[in-house]
Amino acid sequence: MNKVTTRSFDMANYLHDDDAVADYLRPVLDGDPAELAAALGSIARACGMTQLAKDTGLSRKSLYRSLSGERAPNSDTLFKVIKAMGLKLSVVPAA
Length: 95
What we know:
CATH architecture: Orthogonal Bundle
Helix content: 40-55%
Strand content: under 5%
Shape: globular
Oligomer: single chain
Radius of gyration: 15 Å
Order of helices and strands: HHHHH
Number of helices: 5
CATH class: Mainly Alpha
């Protein structure tokens, strides 16, 4: 019997351009803050956590913890991360 080896799915492997990042992030903006943090974590891994740490002034350890999706990070961290990623949030009427 042949043994099949698989690896865990990581969205970071598929976020290669700005359009992919925007398409991935857009649906989670209306949801749970922890889900938003997890999505930003995937984007951060795709872009490089070390550079993000430098750009935000936060430690890599703090970023991994904040963007794990296990909890909702504070708004200061979210805004620093979003700005450092070169992203901009927009607000539109829900209806």
